[in-house]
Design goal:
single chain; 236 residues; mainly alpha; Serine Threonine Protein Phosphatase 5, Tetratricopeptide repeat; two-stranded antiparallel sheet; TPR-like_helical_dom_sf; TPR_rpt
Length: 236
């Protein structure tokens, strides 16, 4: 591994462990020294988000998208942050651009579904299904892809196929959680998706009169691991 990759690997590790101040300082020093790499801009923005400096992160992602117009990850991060901040038109546009640049950014489809439906015969589904079947990705990444496929098919009225995707996703999730109880924390800045938001965009399914919340932001909850199921052949 060359020195540049080692630096990025350390920064990624620090981000994953929540050392946002360290990552921010390191990225700013590297950029000030003349390093020109879009990932440094992305990590700088993510560190700012981790420090809850969202307006600064937004400016970084916007500048990175202008400096590196072919870097899909910068546009994905911009889209996801805009969605969280309620800047929905910019979010939708940025997500579409990111996925045009790199249709394998699976997390982009998850956020894009807040703004428009994806047809089951869309080429995007092939990329999502490939991730779900990939042996090069962990169980969590594959489960996320399966949950997205489930939502796509249920919204298209294909409930049986959609529920089978959900079943397969739950099986993967249960295999990673084990049999004990697990605690999770919903972030205070979690974006609420409600009927008013959904009605702003042209989607195939009508918005519900009352959209259920996952949990109150900032509140802890405990849940049992999902029940184990037999693995079913994935539809398609």
């Amino acid at each position: 591994m060359n020195s540049g990759r080692m630096v990025l690997s350390r920064l990624r590790s620090d981000l994953d462990e929540g050392r946002f101040t360290r990552v921010l300082a390191r990225c700013e020093r590297l950029l000030a020294s003349g390093r020109r790499h879009p990932v440094l801009w992305s990590y700088r923005g993510r560190a700012l988000e981790g420090l809850r400096r969202d307006s600064e992160a937004l400016a970084i992602y916007r500048e990175a998208s202008l400096r590196f117009p072919g870097h899909a990850q910068s546009r994905l991060l911009l889209g996801k942050l805009c969605a969280r901040l309620g800047r929905h038109e910019e979010a939708h546009c940025s997500l579409e651009q990111a996925l045009q640049l790199d249709p394998e950014l699976i997390d982009g489809y998850r956020t894009l579904l807040n703004y428009r439906a994806i047809a089951p015969d869309d080429t995007a589904v092939r990329h999502i299904l490939a991730r779900a079947r990939s042996k090069n990705h962990g169980a969590a990444a594959r489960a996320r892809a399966l949950f997205i496929l489930g939502q796509i098919h249920v919204e298209a009225g294909l409930d049986q196929q959609g529920f089978e995707y959900y079943r397969n996703a739950n099986e993967l999730v249960s295999s990673t959680l084990g049999n004990g109880s697990h605690e999770y924390l919903v972030a205070n800045n979690t974006q609420s998706i409600n009927a008013g938001l959904l009605q702003e965009f042209d989607r195939s399914a009508p918005a519900l009169p009352v959209a259920p919340r996952f949990s109150l932001p900032g509140c802890r909850a405990r849940e049992r691991a999902l029940p184990k199921h037999c693995w079913h052949a994935m539809p398609g």
